[in-house]
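We modelled the chain as a single entity of 281 amino acids. Its sequence is:
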Amino acid sequence: MEKILYVTDLDGTLLNKRESVSSFSIQTINNLVEKGMLFTYATARSLVSASKATKGLSTNIPIIAYNGAFIFRPSTGEIISKEDFNEEERDRVKEILNRYNISPLVYSFMDGVEKVSWIPENENEGIRVYLSKRQGDKRFRAVKDVEELYEGDTFYFTCIGEKDELQPVYDIFSKDSRYCCIIQQDLYRPEYWCEIMPVTATKANAIKKLKGMWGCSKVISFGDGFNDIPMFEISDECYAVENAVDELKAVATGVLKSNEDDGVAKWLMYNLKKELKETNS
């Protein structure tokens, strides 16, 4: 059989509106993984958040987190690959965010331990909701001021707020070749998220790495959002779920049932069973 890498986005694609994977999708995908399917996911979430949302789901290869900034081995948390800012790039982000009076969530490593720092005094409703869903997460670190906020080896910035507030930041970093910057509305709430990463930290680049690591000749991907377009562009086949944005559907190989109707799992079940049957006949 041809060695194929199957990669899915999580939120809005594999995850339902309850931010979880249905029991049908878990059972279907796990059965296929047991039979040798090379399946993984690429998400903007952290390993901790993604692992919680996909509890019970098997992947037999590393997963892509933080929009491609990291490739992790999920069973151990081992970092397989990472993309970093240099000091000048970090300082530039700090300068711009301070200029526009935006207080971000700052993801960094401190003495080799992952931390997410924020200033409670500057919380808005979107940040409060985000934090409320992650109570007990030992990564989170409340700080008093901007100097503390940007301590450590920073690799990712998340700004949550109104679109008009975040748009100037996006306009700056989206035109700077050193960065990858994404702005989009939260799938579950009215706030917008603006995320700033190194330019090499993309799902597409991480998928290319995994494809090489596992000696795959083909990539088939699944997504729902505008930010999945680069992933689709490097895939041999790419499928948008029914609830996907029109821009993604326009470049997709096909459109599946929605995330609420287990579109990814049903496509995999039908097509891989068919492939296995043809191979064994």
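As a brief sanity check on the tokenised model: The first strand starts at residue 4 and ends at 8. The domain at 87-198 is CATH 3.30.1240.10 (Hypothetical Protein, Haloacid Dehalogenase-like Hydrolase; Chain: A; domain 2).
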